[in-house]
Design a protein that fits this description.
The chain is an alpha/beta fold. 36% of the residues lie in helices and 23% in strands. The chain has ten helices and ten strands. Strand 1 (2-10) and strand 2 form a beta hairpin. The longest helix is centred in the last third of the chain and has 18 residues, at 178-195. The structure holds adenosine-5'-triphosphate (ATP).
């Protein structure tokens, strides 16, 4: 359903943040990307829905290359891709319900979106989604009054409002305590297993990757150094993924 081929990205024209990155994400699976800080995990995730423009490669989402789409086509494709962020990206003064409703803005005309005109069926669905993530009683609370774990669950409900085929999560638990981490990861796992939604997650916590992932991709220095089922993620493999790159290896990546 998602295949990334030979993706390359340089932010400043010389240093390559990604070099020839290829991998696939299967339907209904949790795929976790791990790797040291600065390895390129966020760059990969943001390239998939073209929040940043990569330099080379293919991003096949349901066999269509995201890189070749015009603005309207890209907006349409993005409406099937949910995003979950470390800092939640909610509108804090608005209620949980209003934030979830924002998930369907991508399907509305500019005018309806500007005036936040939602159908009753959409409001009902947003309430149901808040119940699904365990926040039925918080629908009318301003998001600024919610805990981090609750905010992330609002973010998940907002993504679900898009009826996504895939949810991209950039360090979704980085700001959460262990209890909230479990709630959020259980929820993401459940969406893959029971709703058939593909979930692609950038994580720093190897133990969480081992617990929740079907498939792990290891990135080091802008390159894929591990791509296998979770059972193959041995301690040796983890050490290799997190190894420091030597200056000669880095110079390979720096070449133009
Ligand atoms: N906007 C930018 N301008 C210039 N360089 C950037 C930009 N964003 C990222 N980079 C560089 O690209 C490389 C990959 O960054 P990226 O944020 O994708 O890594 P990451 O693996 O997600 O790191 P972290 O785990 O710390 O979030 C790093 O060397 C980073 O400094």
């Amino acid at each position: 359903m998602l295949t990334v081929k030979h993706l390359a990205k340089s932010y400043n024209g010389t240093k390559k943040s990604l070099t020839d990155v290829s991998f696939s994400v299967s339907p209904g699976e949790v795929t976790v990307i791990i790797g040291p800080s600065g390895a390129g995990k966020t760059t990969i995730l943001r390239s998939i829905n073209q929040l940043i423009r990569d330099d080379d490669g293919e991003i096949l989402f349901d066999d269509v290359d995201m890189r070749q789409l015009n603005r309207r086509q890209l907006r349409d494709a993005r409406s099937h891709i949910g995003m979950i962020f470390q800092n939640y990206n909610l509108i804090e003064p608005l209620t949980a319900l209003e934030n979830v409703l924002h998930g369907c803005l991508g399907t509305k005309s500019n005018l309806a979106g500007m005036f936040s005109l939602y159908r009753n069926s959409e409001k009902t669905e947003a309430l149901q989604l808040l119940q699904k993530v365990g926040l039925g009683d918080f629908a009318y609370q301003q998001c600024r009054n919610l805990s981090g774990g609750q905010k992330q669950r609002v973010g998940i409900a907002r993504a679900l409002m898009q009826h996504p085929k895939i949810i991209l999560c950039d360090e979704p638990i980085a700001s959460l305590d262990p209890k909230s981490t479990t709630v959020v990861m259980d929820l993401l796992r459940d969406l893959a297993t029971n709703d058939g939604i593909s979930v692609l997650i950038n994580l720093h916590q190897v133990d969480i990757a081992r617990t929740y992932a079907d498939h792990v991709i290891g990135i080091n220095n802008g390159q894929v150094v591990f791509d296998d089922r979770t059972a193959a993620l041995t301690d040796t493999a983890v050490t290799d993924i997190y190894r420091k790159t030597t200056s000669s290896e880095r110079s390979l990546v720096y070449e133009g």
